[in-house]
Amino acid sequence: MGNHTAVSTFLLWGFSSFPGLQTLLFVMILFSHATILAANASVMVAIKCTHNLHTPLYFLLGGLSFSETCTTMAIIPRLLVDLLSESKTLSLSECATQMLFFFGLSCSNCFIMSAMSYDRYTAIRNPLHYATLMTPKVCFQLMTASWVVGFLVSLCIVVIIFNLSFCDSNVIQHFFCDISPVMCLACDYTLYHETAVFVFSAFVLGGSFILIMISYVFIGSVVMKVPSAKGRCKAFSTCSSHLTVVCIHYAFAGFVYLRPKDRDSVREDMLMAVAYTILTPLLNPIVYSLRNKEMQ
Is pLDDT above 50 for 89? Predict the structure, then answer.
């Protein structure tokens, strides 16, 4: 590294540009976090305690709620501490661990939503054989596969990034160890690393989204064969909550992780990441609760 000074710790800059808003941000984010935990816990408890909700769809929804809760736990508690602390430093290993869990869980969420779309297709395409096709064992396998693949992808990304050399600046222009802000601090040539990370991100976001769209194309083809308009509306209504959550999730995630990056896009990414890490987990249980009579 020549005359460069090796970095052993990172500094999370976060919202330090707004010192007068630290307390207000703390209160707002703490309230949002408590609401996220309460809302997702309510969904999981309702699914566990209500016999009518012991179906494949709600098993997968419970898994998504659990995964969303863990995703926020990987980010928000540390953010709350940093908002009230003078020291916002963390070691390279702490940064890598946070990145591993956040992206592992985020990737898992994408695959769980793909599994949910397949579940909806199976329910509409084969209603009489639905219970035999989507058995508890199949649901468990889909959930396990989502988490395993999600964390394998995340592990690959973390290994790629933390094989880089970090020197001179150690200030991460973000409130958590996100991919782009960390890679900006590398003193190596990062084009190949950025390309590899983009490929993995596209595999998760693009691949899972394509699977979801394929399921809905088949769902649409089945529903359009239903003779009555009332029957078609009823079939589509069973998918409305899932489609709403998919649109919210992929809109934010795609904007942050798939669009071309430059050094000046960090602040935009940070603002969108606030929505992605706080707004999405908050809206998911609300959407399902409002749009599903069973959940109400």
Answer: yes
Helices (H), 55-178: 56-73, 76-84, 92-125, 130-133, 136-162
Of 281, 245, 266, nearest in space to 76 by CA = 281
Structural domains present in the chain: 9-291 (1.20.1070.10)
Residue 167 binned pLDDT confidence (cut-offs 50, 70, 90) = confident
Of 40, 154, 62, 72, nearest to 112 by C-alpha is: 62
Task: Answer whether residue 286 shows pLDDT above 90.
Answer: no
Question: How confident is the prediction for the chain on average, in pLDDT?
Answer: 88
d(CA 118, CA 216): 9
To which residue do tokens 């649901």 refer?
139
CA distance 189 to 51: 56
Q: Is the pTM of this model over 0.85?
A: yes
